[in-house]
Amino acid sequence: MAALAGVSVEYYTRMERGSLAGVSDSVLDAVARALRLDDTETTHLHHLARAAGPATARTRARRDRAPEIRPAVRRVLDSMAGVPAFLRNHRFDVLAANPLGRALYAPMFTGSPALPVNTMRFIFLDPHAQAFYPEWAQMARSGAAALRIAAARHPDDQQLMNLIGELSMRSEPFRGWWASQDVYVHSHGVKRFRHPAVGELELAYEGFAPAGEDSLMVLTYSAEAGTPSGDGLELLARWAATQDSIPV
Question: What pTM did the predictor assign?
């Protein structure tokens, strides 16, 4: 592996042991090619190397500061009348949601009506999660892998580390998947839901970051009109209009 990466055996051995501070991007890219890492894994390797370097007081303060939600972002969420949407941070805290987004994730909000609500705590610790997600094991495994990405990008975020510690203590499945060291980025794909009011939904999701906010992501869910899931979203909207208890 050292030969394939173009570095000495001693240097590569230090890297394998976690001594990544000061390693150049070109060497990291060479190691990634030698290991046949995909784009997500290569980016994760670079994040780990940056996390191993010294962090200035200004950098730590920026990482710890809670991002402000611009009023324009809230207006955009609320304007998506036919699309469930919410805003989350890198800790997977839901910071804002439009009415249809709150209706879609009604089981999550039932246990914790006030924002923020943490989707990882819901997935791993709420007994209703496995009924809500027909593919719960896949969801949970990718969730643990996404948290590993977040931990590498935000190594000085104590709240994030506390969340990972809590899940490790309270969830045996999380401990197992965390130990596997998989990495995953939630940016787009398809999710299946078993909603208690409208039944099965298969929705495409897209995530995008508001300009200038690398730790925030807007997630939207949609379905093609005329399909069973498209009809289900219309039914969900009618159901949401009758609910006074869905938190704002």
Answer: 0.74
